[in-house]
Structure formats: structure tokens, C-alpha cells
Design brief:
The structure is a single chain. With about 425 residues, the chain is an alpha/beta fold. About 30% of the residues lie in helices and about 20% in strands. The chain has 2 domains: about 270 residues, 3-Layer(bba) Sandwich (FAD/NAD(P)-binding domain), CATH 3.50.50; about 100 residues. Helix 1 links the parallel strand 1 and strand 2.
């Protein structure tokens, strides 16, 4: 059963050199770079603020590392706004201050911003993306562009454009679980424990903390990840968990939100009972955006694999360099680290590179991929999805789009050496 809509004409509200869809870390970097390279740039975001999971998702900290001028600028600008300087590390996130940092940087760069706006389709000329179609309080509108950068995380633009992709793990399509981050106050941080990885064991008077969590927390929660915030007495919890979620489906996102929220109070009660320093803790707030780790992986001109990362492979056509993280695969069927993952036991200590072809869809023109939706394997994705690396990917995407506009060519035709010059 279906309903046939009336044919309609959609207003083209603006024409830009570059349109960036999604304002997470990769989208912020892509929009800033394109703007700073002289392009008229529109950044479209579906939520009511910028930053994606780094802000609205109440993320605890930037994890992993990369050689990126843009990432360093973001850290420096955010660090200057930290009220309690010296209390937490420079990679610890104050979500509200980071939002302000992003807004100020975008305004200074001259980026045009459009919030509360969903991209629901694309404008196409053959196999070339020529713009996006949006839905918002303003109705249905279209925005044309010479180049579009998909920083939506889920690859929504690539999906609407018909670019080839697969979801999740290659053999069965299973995706990493969803998490709703939240903060607790009332913590005695002088005595508090801060297990920062699944493989971090903490012995307490009542037993080992990770083992106690597996026993007492409601399934599929069952691990302890606690991080200092920028505010004394307040700790960020990465402990809610919902498996079998497809982040491209509204029904699944709704399920993830409700399941994770149902776990928050039991987690607080667990911390009060078993975690030193948390005896009087209480919830102070939760993210307004559910954390989706994995959905679509697109097929690019090139694709990065876990072996490339294991071997710290150097690609001469790099657009991201000295990227470093571990294989952060959250358990696809329960709590904790997946059997394929490796955190503290990750042995490769060198940085790796990401080649430009991973950002270029194999058959779709006018479009660049950026952030966690670039071309890579499920295992490689568990590494390059780290936010600093996504910033560097976005920075590269913005530079490539600007060069494509400057030379009136397709993104796939841009010389990598010119991108590299803009990144160093």
C-alpha cells in the first residue's frame, strides 16, 4: 500500500561552491577548510547545534591522534575556553565550550550555517551530484553546489546518490552497538577510579570492577568506562549499551535512545555501590544525540584495510598522515570489547596514512566522503572513526573540494600533491 504524492517544484534557495552535510568533527573541518580556501560554503546540520557526537553527543574526550593543523587549531581554541585550566587534559571535552569554539571558527571563516535541517535527497545530473534537497520548518528546499562533501556519518548523501556501500561487518552486516553518553556529579575525584578502556581492570574492596559490572548491570550494559570532565566533581560515563541497532533507521534510533536511558539509573546505583569515589554520585545530564558508531561503508576508488593499519602503511597519495588509534570494536552482541578488538594490547605504535581514493566514491561524481563513512573495512573503520582522525579526513575533503571548484574539475581529478600542499 502506498500514497502517490503530487508532482511539485522545489525552490533552489542558494548556490554554493561547496556544501558540507553534517557538522560533526569531520564536517566542521571540511567546512572550515573549504571556506578558508576561498569557497562559498554552506554547512547543513540536522540537529540544533554544531559538533555532532563531540558536543551534542556529550563525548568525553578526543581519543587517538593525527597530524593535522585543523585538529591542533580546534584543540588550542577549545583549551583557551576551559574555566578549570589544568584540571583535565587538553583533549578532554567541555561540550558547551566546544560548541562555542566551532561557532566562532565557522563565523571567522565565513561559512554559512543552516541548522535544524535534514538532507532528504540529492540533485543529480547523470551520475553527478549537483546539490542537495532538504526538509525543515521552512519546508522543502534545494541547494545547488559545485561540490558536496558527505560528513553525515551514515553517508546519507552517498546513499541518496546511489553510491555503492555495505553496512557493518562484511560477513554478516552486524554493526557496533549504540551508546548514550551521560555525566554524573557528586564524585570525589581524589578517590575516584577512571577505567579508560575495556581492558582496564580495577580492583576494589568488593571485587574487580569490570567483572562486577558484567554481573550486576542490565544486559547489554556490563562494562565500566569513566572519564574526567573539565569540571571538578563531574565524570563522563560511557557505559550505556544497545546492540542490534541500525543507525540509518528511525525505529532503531528510538529503541537505542529508550534502552540506553533505561540503563542510566541502574548504572548510577552500581557506581554508588561498587566504585570508589562515586558513593554520592547523581546524573547531571545526558547527550541529546545517541552515539552511533557504525553504519554504511562506501566503496571508494581506494579502500583502507586493517592490514594497512597493522603495517603502518605509507601511501604516497596520502591525505591523512600519522593517524594513530587502536581497533576499538565494541562487542557486537553484548558489553565490553569485541573479541576482534584490541585496545591496550594494540601493538602497532606507528602512525598510518589514508589515501585520497578512500574519500572518492567509485562511480559518483561531484561528491566526496568524509569521516567514518569513507571507504574502508569494518576493522579499519574501528580505528579511523576516532574523532581526531575524522577531523583530518574532513580537512582533506575540504581542501580537495576547494581545488575541484578552483580548477572546474571533478573531485576524482584533483591532484593529490595539491591537496597535500594545502594540508602542510
Amino acid at each position: 500500500m502506498f500514497y502517490t504524492e503530487k508532482e511539485r517544484k522545489t525552490d533552489i534557495k542558494g548556490t554554493y561552491d561547496v556544501i558540507v552535510v553534517g557538522s560533526g568533527p569531520s564536517g566542521i573541518a571540511a567546512a572550515l577548510k573549504a571556506s578558508e580556501c576561498g569557497c562559498s560554503t554552506l554547512l547543513i546540520e540536522q540537529s540544533g547545534s554544531v559538533g555532532g557526537i563531540s558536543t551534542s553527543g556529550m563525548m568525553s574526550h578526543f581519543t587517538g591522534s593525527v597530524k593535522s593543523l585543523m585538529y591542533e587549531r580546534i584543540l588550542k581554541n577549545a583549551e583557551e575556553k576551559n574555566v578549570f585550566k589544568g584540571y583535565a587534559s587538553r583533549v578532554t571535552i567541555d561540550p558547551e565550550m566546544l560548541k562555542n569554539t566551532y561557532y566562532e571558527m565557522l563565523e571567522k571563516a565565513g561559512t554559512q550555517l543552516l541548522l535544524y535541517t535534514f538532507v532528504c535527497d540529492v540533485m543529480m545530473d547523470g551520475n553527478r551530484v549537483t546539490g542537495v534537497i532538504t526538509e525543515s520548518k521552512s519546508g522543502r528546499n534545494a541547494y545547488a553546489a559545485k561540490a558536496v562533501i558527505d560528513c553525515s556519518g551514515d553517508g546519507d548523501v552517498g546513499f541518496y546518490a546511489g553510491a555503492e556501500y555495505f553496512k557493518g561487518r562484511e560477513e554478516d552486516g552486524k554493526m557496533q552497538p549504540a551508546t548514550l553518553m551521560f555525566k554524573v556529579g557528586g564524585v570525589d575525584t581524589e578517590r575516584a577510579v577512571f577505567p579508560g578502556s575495556f581492558e582496564t581492570e580495577v580492583e576494589t574492596a568488593k571485587g574487580e570492577l569490570q567483572a562486577l559490572a558484567r554481573k550486576h548491570l542490565p544486559y547489554p550494559a556490563g562494562h565500566v568506562l569513566l572519564y574526567r570532565s573539565t569540571i571538578p566533581g563531574t565524570v563522563t560515563c560511557n557505559m550505556t549499551n544497545c546492540v542490534d541497532i541500525d543507525g540509518t533507521k528511525a525505529e532503531d534510533l528510538t529503541k537505542a535512545e529508550t534502552v540506553c536511558r533505561s540503563q542510566m539509573q541502574p548504572i548510577v546505583e552500581f557506581l554508588r555501590e561498587y566504585a570508589p569515589g562515586y558513593e554520592n554520585c547523581y546524573i547531571t545530564g545526558a547527550g541529546s544525540l545517541i552515539g552511533i558508531r557504525e553504519t554504511r561503508h562506501f566503496k571508494g576508488v581506494k579502500s583502507i584495510t586493517e592490514n594497512d593499519i597493522y603495517e603502518a602503511r605509507f601511501f604516497s597519495d596520502w591525505v591523512v598522515r600519522d593517524a594513530y588509534f587502536n581497533f576499538d570494536v565494541h562487542n557486537l552482541t553484548g558489553s565490553g570489547l569485541d573479541e576482534t578488538g584490541s585496545q591496550k594490547n594494540f601493538r602497532q605504535k606507528k602512525g598510518y596514512t589514508i589515501p585520497y581514493g578512500c574519500l572518492v566514491p567509485e562511480k559518483t561524481d561531484g561528491l566526496l566522503l568524509s569521516g567514518r563513512n569513507i571507504s574502508g573495512t569494518h576493522m579499519a573503520h574501528s580505528n579511523f572513526r576516532a574523532m581526531p582522525i575524522c577531523v583530518a579526513i574532513g580537512e582533506a575533503g575540504g581542501a580537495a573540494a576547494a581545488l575541484a571548484v578552483k580548477h572546474s574539475i571533478e573531485p576524482r581529478e584533483v591532484k593529490v600533491s595539491e591537496i597535500q600542499e594545502l594540508l602542510v
